[in-house]
Amino acid sequence: MINVILSGGVGSRLWPLSRKSCPKQYIPLFDQRSLFQLCAQRNADICQELMVVGNQSNQQLSRENLAAIGINKYQEITEAVPRNTAAAIAFAAWQAQPEDILLISPSDHIIGNLPAYHDAVKEAEQLAQKDFLVTFGIKPTRPETGYGYIEHQDYEVLSFREKPNSDTARQMLRAGNFLWNSGMFCFKAKIFLEELQHYAPEVYTKALTAWQQKSGGCLPEDLSLQIPSTSVDYAVMERSKRIKVVPTTDLEWNDLGTFEALWEYTEAQKSDNQKSQHLIIGTDKPVFFIGQENMVFIETDDAILILPKDKSQDVKALYEKLEKEQPDLVS
After folding, report:
1. What local confidence, expressed as pLDDT, does residue 150 receive?
2. Which parts of 257-311 are beta strand (E)?
3. How large is the average pLDDT for residues 30-49?
4. CA-derived radius of gyration, the chain
5. pLDDT value of position 91
6. pTM flag (> 0.85)
7. 285 Rama sector, left if φ>0, alpha if ψ -120 to 50, beta otherwise
8. Same-domain pairing of 85 and 209
9. Residue 324 sits in which domain range?
10. How far, in Å, CA of 14 to CA of 300, rounded?
11. CA 291 to CA 310: how far, in whole Å?
12. For the chain, what is the domain count?
């Protein structure tokens, strides 16, 4: 089994901590370790090989992160331009042998209770051996609007749902048969490629053309730009008839995509007398809030961000605005 780490994300909802020059998965926020390093470490005991798929701007960060934790043996696939997860996983599948099982791991998740995680991966591996495409579903703990959902019955997927509004998320939580869509997958390389060719032939063909013209593990920019930028969910997982889900109930999983998620994770690690009403990162100065609760205060060398915790999803819109009007602030 090969651990395929997808490392190309920007982490726009964690600006100004996360920048193009150092996306969130490489920031050493967890006892001087990054999310990328934690991902590689937790899969090292259950996978025989490691493959990193990322873009040119992240390549050196990936190498430095892996060297710092003593991992020196791995394969690299370097995209000239990001084309979303369907193409990225296809490249990994072509790099592997047809019968190899790929454990697809986003590089920006944090997972506790590793024994439960390893058990879930073993279940997924057994299903993948039977030629299923396996996704991991996380038992929801709150009516989260930032995740997609999977409606299920045991290991059977009944439907995939887009990110819901608050009312719909609460209904799903009450229903009891919905899981958060984790974005982690497990399948044989050849089975994924068969399904991609069937359900998203243009992605398959254009990605294969770029793959065949790679040089030294790097993909050509001109051919890469012709690949439709499509997620693996849209291209394959929501359409294939070979899907199974492994429901996880004890997994301590968090997609640290927002300051709200980061806050909830950091607070969960504290004792009751250490808990705080606010999230403050980047300053040693005392920060005071009068008449405000549940605030986020982030300071970097060139920016300060202040927002209510429940507005964390709105940071992405600010990032996109800055990308057009003040690109130096996101670089």
Report:
1. 96
2. 279-281, 295-299, 304-308
3. 93
4. 20
5. 97
6. yes
7. beta
8. yes
9. 260-329
10. 12
11. 16
12. 2
